[in-house]
C-alpha cells in the first residue's frame, strides 16, 4: 500500500482507532480475508479529510473517536466479498461493489467506520457492521423510526457520525450507515491506480 502512495491513517491521526473486520473472522465471510493487512490505508488527501472529520467529532463530542472497520481494500478481496455475499445477483451491488467495475475502497478512497465512546465501545447504530438490509439504509431511517425498528438514540448516534463525516466532505452511502466515499469512483479511477 505504501509503495502505491497510500498512507497509514493512524500516522496522520493517532486518535483514530482501527479494527479491520476483514482481517478477523468477525465479518460476513467468517474468514480472515486480509491476512497480514492489519492497518487502515487511504490516499493522502482522503486521510487528511478523515483527520478533519475526526477533529470535528472530538470537538462536538469530547471522548468520542472514529473507529475504522475497513479502508483501502485490494480488488482481489472485492471478488471474495462479491462471491461470498448471499443475496440475489441483482441486489449484490447495493451491498458490495461489482469487482469488475471496482469499489471506491479499491482505490483507497472509501472508508467503513463507526464512532467509539470514552471506553472504546462502538455506539449502538441499530445494526452491526455489514448488516445487509433496510434497517441499515440511511435512506430508510424515517420509515424504520416510524415502524419502531430504529430508536431515536440509534438514529442520533448515526447522525453523530454523519455530521462529522459530511462536514469534512465525505459522501454517505444510501444503503450502509458505515460507508463513506471521499470522492466519486470516476474521480478515484482517474486520479489513482487500482489496488490489485
Ligand atoms: C462490503 C461493504 N463493507 C462495502 O464496503 N460495500 C461497498 C458498497 C463496496 O463494496 O464498495
Ligand atoms: Zn464500504
From TrEMBL:
Catalytic activity: D-alanyl-D-alanine + H2O = 2 D-alanine
Record's keyword annotation contains Metal-binding: yes
Alphabetized GO MF terms: D-Ala-D-Ala dipeptidase activity; metallopeptidase activity; zinc ion binding
Pfam families per the UniProt record, alphabetical: Peptidase_M15
Cofactor annotation remark: Binds 1 zinc ion per subunit.
TM ranges: none
Record site: Transition state stabilizer: 73
Entry keywords, A to Z: Cell wall biogenesis/degradation, Dipeptidase, Hydrolase, Metal-binding, Metalloprotease, Protease, Zinc
Biological processes, Gene Ontology terms: cell wall organization; proteolysis
Annotated binding of Zn(2+), by residue: 105, 112, 179
Cofactor(s) demanded: Zn(2+)
Positions of the catalytic residues: 176 (proton donor/acceptor)
Biological role stated in the UniProt entry: Catalyzes hydrolysis of the D-alanyl-D-alanine dipeptide.
HAMAP family reported in the protein's UniProt record: A_A_dipeptidase
Family: Belongs to the peptidase M15D family.
Protein name as catalogued: D-alanyl-D-alanine dipeptidase
Species of origin: Persicitalea jodogahamensis
Classification lineage: Bacteria, Pseudomonadati, Bacteroidota, Cytophagia, Cytophagales
Amino acid at each position: 500500500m505504501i509503495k502505491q502512495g497510500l498512507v497509514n491513517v493512524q500516522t496522520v491521526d493517532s486518535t483514530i482507532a482501527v479494527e479491520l473486520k476483514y482481517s478477523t473472522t468477525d465479518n460476513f465471510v467468517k474468514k480472515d480475508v486480509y491476512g497480514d493487512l492489519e492497518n487502515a490505508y487511504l490516499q493522502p488527501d482522503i486521510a487528511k479529510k478523515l483527520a478533519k472529520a475526526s477533529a470535528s467529532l472530538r470537538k462536538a463530542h469530547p471522548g468520542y473517536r472514529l473507529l475504522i472497520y475497513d479502508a483501502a481494500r485490494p480488488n482481489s478481496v472485492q471478488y471474495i466479498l462479491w462471491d461470498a455475499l448471499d443475496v440475489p445477483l441483482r441486489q449484490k451491488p447495493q451491498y458490495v461493489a461489482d469487482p469488475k467495475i471496482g469499489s471506491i475502497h479499491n482505490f483507497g478512497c472509501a472508508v467503513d467506520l463507526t464512532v467509539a465512546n470514552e471506553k472504546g465501545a462502538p455506539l449502538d447504530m441499530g445494526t452491526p457492521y455489514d448488516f445487509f438490509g433496510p434497517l441499515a439504509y440511511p435512506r430508510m431511517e424515517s420509515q424504520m423510526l416510524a415502524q419502531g425498528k430504529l430508536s431515536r438514540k440509534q438514529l442520533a448516534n448515526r447522525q453523530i457520525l454523519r455530521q462529522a463525516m459530511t462536514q469534512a466532505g465525505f459522501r454517505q452511502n444510501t444503503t450502509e450507515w458505515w460507508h463513506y466515499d471521499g470522492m466519486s469512483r470516476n474521480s478515484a479511477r482517474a486520479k489513482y491506480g487500482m489496488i490489485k
